[in-house]
Automatic annotation (TrEMBL):
UniProt GO molecular function: electron transfer activity; metal ion binding
Domain of life assignment: Eukaryota
UniProt key word Disulfide bond: yes
Domain Phytocyanin: 35-130
Coiled coil: none
InterPro entries in alphabetical order: BlueCu_1_BS, Cupredoxin, Phytocyanin-like, Phytocyanin_dom, Plantacyanin
A single Gene Ontology CC term: plasma membrane
Record key words, sorted: Copper, Disulfide bond, Metal-binding, Signal
UniProt-listed Pfam families: Cu_bind_like (PF02298)
Protein name per Swiss-Prot or TrEMBL: Plantacyanin
Signal peptide range: 1-34
Length: 130
């Protein structure tokens, strides 16, 4: 009978080890999830957001949320040239919901507001994702 008790204890230990391994896998999976950032933090997408990324570490797959008044602004993903010149290429589709979600690609991701004068007044942001 003592042998059966040891077998039960061994099964219990194996179950505990399996549960611990599963917990470690689940916790590691959570760390690998993409992060979600609201551009401009509480102030949202607006003027002078170019410095907003400073001090933050972004990864490819992270999500940027652009919150703004859709009656006043928009969001346009652009190239470095479009960012520097504050010009959206012809045919590019502006995001206009006021609560836009954009998944970052590896490298530098550029965004501007294409409402006349807004980008020139600082409504643009460049985010580098590792």
């Amino acid at each position: 009978m003592a042998a059966q008790g040891r077998g039960s204890a061994a099964r219990g230990n194996a179950a505990a080890v399996a549960a611990l391994v599963l917990l470690c896998v689940l916790l590691h999976g959570e760390v690998a999830e993409s992060a979600v950032y609201t551009v401009g933090d509480r102030g949202g997408w607006g003027f002078n957001t170019a410095s907003w990324p400073r001090g933050k570490r972004f990864r490819a797959g992270d999500v940027l949320v652009f919150r703004y008044s859709p009656k006043a602004h928009n969001v346009v993903p652009v190239s470095a040239v479009g960012y520097n010149s504050c010009a959206a290429p012809r045919g590019v589709r502006a995001l206009t919901s006021g609560n836009d979600r954009v998944t970052l690609k590896r490298g530098v991701n550029y965004f501007i507001c294409s409402v006349p004068g807004h980008c020139q007044a600082g409504m643009k942001v460049a985010v580098t994702a590792a």
